[in-house]
Write a structure and sequence with these properties.
The chain contains two helices and no strands. The chain has 84 residues and is an all-alpha fold.
């Protein structure tokens, strides 16, 4: 299982636990709704940061592969010229 899926599962579990804890807390409805919204915003921000981090990592890997393919292409072209 990839670390991204594990991390997403952990974050979802934390968010679900926090939501259940807030919903069963003895606060007034308005306070509870505000807490739920705040926790949701915090969770969304954390998820966005992780998503951006994963995208950046993937972009770096794609660039590495592009460079390797370009280098291999140049090597093949040079060998073809030598063979002629």
């Amino acid at each position: 299982m990839s670390s991204g899926k594990v991390l997403l599962g952990v974050l979802a579990g934390i968010a679900a636990g926090a939501l259940v804890g807030i919903l069963f807390a003895p606060d007034k409805g308005e306070k509870t709704r505000k807490k739920v919204v705040r926790k949701g915003e915090d969770f969304a921000e954390g998820l966005k940061e992780k998503f951006d981090e994963i995208l950046e990592n993937i972009s770096g890997k794609v660039d590495e592969v592009k460079n390797e393919v370009s280098d291999l292409t140049q090597q093949v072209k040079a060998k073809v010229k030598e063979a002629k």
